[in-house]
Structure formats: C-alpha cells, structure tokens
Design brief:
single chain; 276 residues; mainly alpha
Length: 276
C-alpha cells in the first residue's frame, strides 16, 4: 500500500491536488476564523448554497462556470451585507430566502439546459483531483490577496471582530470592513467549490475553527491553528480517498468531522472532575 501511495504522489493530478490544498487551507483558515469570531456562519452557509445559482447560470448560458458562479456569489454577498446592516434583527430570514433562491435557480436552470450535465455533481460534492490550472492559479491568487489584506488591516479586523466600541474609537470604518469581509467570504466560497464542493466547503470554514477557538484566544492564533488543522484534515482525507477509492471531498470532510469528535471527546475527558 505504501508503494502504491508513492506511485500516486508522482502523478501530475495528485501533485496539483496537493498544490491546491495549500491555498485552500489558508483561505478557509483565515476567512473561517473571521466568520467564527464575527458570528457570520449563517452568512457563509447562505452564500455557499446560493452560489449554486451561479453554476446554473453558467451552464444555461454556456458561460465559464467559475466566472458565472464567482460573479453571482459576489452579487449575493453584497446584497446579504446590505440587508444585514439595514435589517439586523431580520437578517436570518433574508439569508434563508437567498439560500433557497440560489439553490432553486441553479436546479431550474440546469433542468432547462441541454447537453451533458453529469459533472454538475462535482460542484456540489467537489473533487480536488480534477483542479484545472486556472482554478489552481486563482486559488493561489485569492489566498495571497486575502492573507495580504488581513495582515495589512489586522488591527482593524481585530477591532471589528471583538469590540465595536473600540473600533469606533480607533476610527475604523466598520461598514467598509464588513463589506470587505463579506466579499472575501464570497471569493473563498466561489473559488473553493471545485475543490471541495459547494455543500462541503462550509465544513472547512467551520470545523477547524471549532477546534481552533479552544486552542487559542487570539485572532492570529486561531487563524494559524485553523489553517494547520485544515491542511492536516485535507491530507489525511486525500490519503483515505486513495486507499479506499472514495470521493476526495467527502473523505476530507469525514476526516474533519472525525477530528472534531476526537477533540470533543478529549476535552470532555480532560475536564472531568478528579476523584479525591
């Protein structure tokens, strides 16, 4: 089995998969942390599922799916951002409607379109082993841009994430940075969908942050832990998929869930009161 794995690692598509894992883990680690501390998990979920509408538009109008999904997700993100800032108490209902609208639009357009559509399941469940060169470059580009923005504006994002009053005192334009965060979430979702799928990308944005927030109390520490955990889960998930001939995206997520359960079990055991 070990020899077979070494042979697999020599194949170009496997090398591309591991090259894609690096920016994917950085993107989901950094953005996932900001999603967690700003309590925007429902926004990420809405955009993740709503992005399927962009897939349907691309297929129906014979457009590049990556482009149509990215533009559609960005538009949805800006609408969601506006609704959250304008109607804070009702934002959950709006996001639920956008979630349903995107999925329904995608399904209807796919049903109305003609031609071969079997690979559309890949955008739901993902396959990192079939990353195109364009998608690989875009993942690296998005990873560099997002990390650069968060690094440069780290004090502003930190203030926005933890203390609204302190952000106001610092003169942080909260609305502008909120929109910037929403746009980065949209970028992360649309570019990650081919690697792990629209349904599964939300897990990479949330599972590792669940563990990371218990390991670090700082924003920077959470990002580092989350990125490392995502990388660990992705590599182990790929190895599982190679060994048992399973879907790579589903394997990564199952390994991630298994890691979360093991961590939860460890925390439960270590916090048990000792007998005197």
């Amino acid at each position: 089995m070990f020899e077979n794995l070494l042979e697999l690692l020599k194949m170009p598509f496997v090398v591309d998969a591991f090259l894609g894992i690096i920016p994917l883990c950085v993107l989901c680690g950094v953005i996932g942390t900001l999603i967690c501390v700003n309590r925007l998990s429902y926004v990420a979920g809405g955009l993740t599922h709503g992005a399927y509408g962009g897939v349907g538009i691309g297929v129906y109008f014979s457009l590049p799916i990556l482009v149509s999904a990215s533009i559609f997700t960005l538009i949805l993100a800006l609408i969601v951002g506006f609704l959250i800032l304008r109607y804070k108490t009702q934002s959950d209902q709006f996001i639920g409607a956008i979630w349903a609208f995107g999925m329904a639009l995608g399904i209807i357009l796919l049903e109305l379109s003609h031609g071969y559509k079997a690979d559309m399941m890949g955008y739901l469940f993902g396959n990192i082993l079939v990353l195109s060169s364009l998608n690989l470059y875009l993942l690296w580009g998005a990873g560099i841009v997002c990390v650069g923005l968060v690094w440069y504006f780290y004090p502003q994002f930190q203030a926005l994430s933890y203390d609204d009053e302190f952000a106001k005192i610092m003169g942080v334009n909260q609305k502008a940075f909120f929109y910037l965060l929403i746009v980065m979430i949209a970028m992360c979702v649309s570019l990650s969908m081919q690697a792990v799928g629209l349904i599964l990308v939300i897990s990479l944005l949330s599972i590792s942050t669940f563990i990371a927030q218990s390991l670090s109390k700082t924003l920077k520490g959470m990002m580092i832990y989350c990125t490392f955990l995502n990388f660990l889960f992705c590599v182990l998930g790929l190895l599982v998929s190679f060994c048992f001939d399973l879907s790579s995206g589903a394997s990564i997520i199952m390994v991630s869930v298994g890691g979360m359960l093991l961590f939860f079990l460890y925390k439960s055991i270590t916090t048990l009161p000792s007998k005197s």
